[in-house]
Fold this sequence. Notes:
There is one protein chain. The chain is mostly helical. It has a domain at 97-270: Orthogonal Bundle (MetI-like fold). Helix content is 78%, strand content 1%. The protein contains twelve helices and two strands. The protein has a two-stranded antiparallel ribbon with strand order 1-2. A hairpin with a 4-residue loop joins β1 (80-81) and β2.
Amino acid sequence: MIIYVMKRLGGLVALLFAISVLVFMIIRLIPGDPALVILGTSGGDPATVARLRQQMGLDQPVVMQYLRWIGGVLTGDFGYSYGQQRSVLSLISANIVPTIQLTIAALILTLLFGVTIGVIAAVRRGTPFDTISMGFAITSMSIPSFWLGLVLIIVFAVLLPVFDVLGGPGIKGLVLPAVTLAMVETGFTARFVRSSVVEAERQKHVTVARAKGIPTRDVLFRHILRNATLPVLTVVGLQVGSLVAGTVIVETVFSRQGIGRLLVDAILGKDYLTVQAIVLLIAALYSVINFVVDMLYPVLDPRAARW
Length: 307
């Protein structure tokens, strides 16, 4: 078990290092000088531009810029946003709570409806419910988030003024963005859960359990769902990262405060340090969640520790 944990931990550290390098280099490939964008009309003064470039460290070699940046990240210093006139850490701290609320709400909706629909469709496969539910799943996976968000705003905020047009901090402002964010993942979860349950249902021990006369409900919960949990857990880990990344579109559509909207504003303003910090944060969160999922594998299936 210790070897299993050390391998996964070593892989996580290597992955985070590779992500930091990739994020840093991709941002540097964006055309344009961030100092000129920040200065705006004052960018015509070469001395002012040179002074700002020096303050931002853009006059140093790329390797030194990376070492300076990653050294600050490791100590909790993500740099200073000259466009927002605030530290990057304070910007993230001010916007991360609404994003966490949106992600958790969307994840709850995804698991609640996705797992329920998937299990019922698997148990009743071949019935009209199975056909309709899988049709719904495919449709939901095909709908773009930005289009669905606009439709929900028109229907439930304009024509039927039930919810707020703009995503506010309350429950009414959270419902439509959460539904929009969860729709695609709900369809994917439903299809995956159905496939996992059907596969587990075909195992020999399930056939033996039924031959022994064990009640159908006990067979479902003790033998089928228990064996279908492991692959579903992997998908849940991936979905958390997808939901966090999806907030970039949803928060922009609903004009909702959060990390996703902050990222869009930072990209438009060529705020390199803010973009780097947010992208690194999302990627690191994605990696850490999958690491936690890997750690849960041996708990659900001790054979996983031998891998």
